[in-house]
Amino acid sequence: MIKCKVCGKWLKNIRGYNIHYNRMHGVIQGENISIPQIEELLNRMRKLELDNIFMKYQLKYKTIGNKSVEAIERIRQDNQRPERSANKNNMSNVVKDLKGIFNEDFNYHDILKPINPIEEPIIPSIMVEILV
């Protein structure tokens, strides 16, 4: 039985002692990265994050120096409101008129007549002349 000099643990043989000592108390071999290098990397990351936040702020509130941002504003408005054709304008006017009619006390029974399928359709006089 062998006793570990560092922690006092008893081990059965020399091989077990060597494995235990290397795993528990051995010097960890790794890259020697100095603390100033790590601090420099962290400072660069913080600076990039701040630059990113600053650029987002500038784009959001349009504070890009003293330059004019009318072109950006015009592009934004063009994307938000596409151009309307004459048909769409007429359609929107018709819809507005219909909404106004239906919002009032509108009774459709006054306008629509019931259809009686038994009655014969009325033939216009022009059609009668052509048939004769």
Can you walk me through this structure?
Among the domains are: 1-30; 86-131, no CATH class. Helices cover 56% and strands 3% of the residues. The protein is built from five helices and two strands. It has a two-stranded antiparallel sheet with strand order 1-2. It is elongated.
Overall form: elongated
Strand adjacency order, main sheet = 1-2
- Sheet having the most strands: 2 strands, antiparallel
Q: What share of the residues lie within helices?
A: 55-70%
- Total helix count? 5
Short description:
56% of the residues lie in helices and 3% in strands.
Outline the secondary-structure elements.
Blueprint (H helix, E strand, L loop, with lengths): L1 E2 L6 E2 L2 H11 L10 H27 L8 H11 L5 H18 L21 H7 L1
Antiparallel strand pairs: 1-2
Descriptive tags:
132 residues, elongated, Znf_C2H2_type
